[in-house]
Amino acid sequence: MTDxxxxxxxxxxxxxxxxxxxxxxxxxxxxxxxATLARQLLLDRASVPVLDAVAHVGGFQAQxxxxxxxGLWSRLRAFDPAVLSGLLTGRSVVRVHLMRxxxxxxxxxxxxxxxxxxxxxxxxxxxxxxxxxxxxxDLDELAAAGRALLADGEGRSMAEITRALAExxxxxxxxxxxxxxxxxxxxxxxxxxxxxxxxxxxxxxxxLSSWLGREVDPPPSEGSDPVGQALARRYLAAxxxxxxxxxxxxxxxxxxxxxxxxxxxxxxxxxxxxxxxLLDLPGAPLPDPDTPAPVRFLPAFDNAIxxxxxxxxxIDDEHRGLSVAGERVxxxxxxVSATWNVEADTVVVRPLRGFSPAERDAVAEEGRELAxxxxxxGSHGVRVASGRA
Length: 389
Fold this sequence. Notes:
single chain, alpha+beta, 15 helices, Winged helix DNA-binding domain-containing protein, AlkZ-like
């Protein structure tokens, strides 16, 4: 049995509720915190293949190309970044626009299965920014032109794409045309070396069908939503217990309440301290709230924080802005308690609250391990600033 087997997998469709008493159980913020850490592989580092870890957490937000490596280092024992680079160049994982129209690193299988379910959301989010620019543009024609442009399998930059599109649509903003095409209308991947360990490279967009050798899965028949139901199960496995609003915050999808309703008999129900209903998979881990939580360094935009509408289980309201500003954070006793960055070959930690001597020592020890991971020569050091930021 792997660590992920212990964390739990979604039940088969039609499975019945096994913990009826959970309906009225209230989970406080600490209980939810420990559940999140366990599901996110942050309570204990897991000994599982890298590909399985990427799949389990539902992918890593990856607009900053190197950040998924830090996210996996914090979650896996003996993580080798060359393995993730190999999965990317080997096309087992892909960099794509998906949840919330942000760039995510997900497994190829998940992208193929999930992309069409996200299509309407992706288009609406682009139109929310560029509706006036795109007024009068036939989106079907734009998609066809984009597919023709990328059909040779050669990766193209945004600048190359927008120059070509502007010849046919000279009036709209070139940026609007490019954003609509590559992040919404046509499934594309960002080809390596973008996203390879310690490699700087611009974005080269390739047709996903060319890159992976087949088209994305077709949309379901009208009136059914098996992909939405699968997404809900996968989300709860990695983030539960959670609300429908949390699921929407993670995915960006508006139409999932019906999918949740369809699988509701499979699920167990809790309440948080504010009375909100939280759903979960039966038998999924709920660690003792007093379980010690080790120090963990998280990358920018980690979904352990961003994957919830109500983030109080892991970050205080006064620091919530850090999670959308791209700050890297440190978890101490399971909560965001510091920010960190690399300055002049040193991992610098800036506390958001006072640390006890034991906490400061634990942060410094984990920081040294991170510094060693980030450095070829081991020359990175660690400095924990005094006081709070």
